[in-house]
Amino acid sequence: MDMRTRVTAALKDAMKSKEVDRLSTLRLINAAIKDKDIALRGEGDDKTVTDADVLAIMGRMVKQRQESARAYDEGGRLELAEKERAEIKVIEEFLPKQLSEAETEAAVDAAISAVGAESIRDMGKVMGELKGKYTGQMDFGKVGPLVKGRLG
Questions:
Q1: Which is nearest to 30 in space by CA: 47, 14, 54?
Q2: For the whole model, what pTM was predicted?
Q3: Do 76 and 22 sit in the same domain of this protein?
Q4: Which Pfam families does this one have (predicted)?
């Protein structure tokens, strides 16, 4: 079952069981997927949103909510921070399991050898390889410095 179908099925289940908060988050995910569809159509391609695109969208949504929750915590708005964390839990149901630190390091080493990277100039190739295989499974903001350290 592709990601879009899983989200749609979860949306229907949330409607039937009247889970208001979950339904709200699922609608946001669905809207983001449709926005990406429209953007692709605007480029004139006949492409549709792939599972990798959906994973990237959800990854961005999680990151946005983590930043918002942190800001709400700092501002003393704990009820809003909790709402953001609840949305993160709903989104993460659809994301693959995050790689551990050891698994991430092994994936970086494998990507470096796969593309034959020798210097910092090859960082883009390595990151491209990692994004192709591990979208949604690792935080690329943290992986970038790791790759840089390995190549530098």
A1: 54
A2: 0.73
A3: yes
A4: YqeY
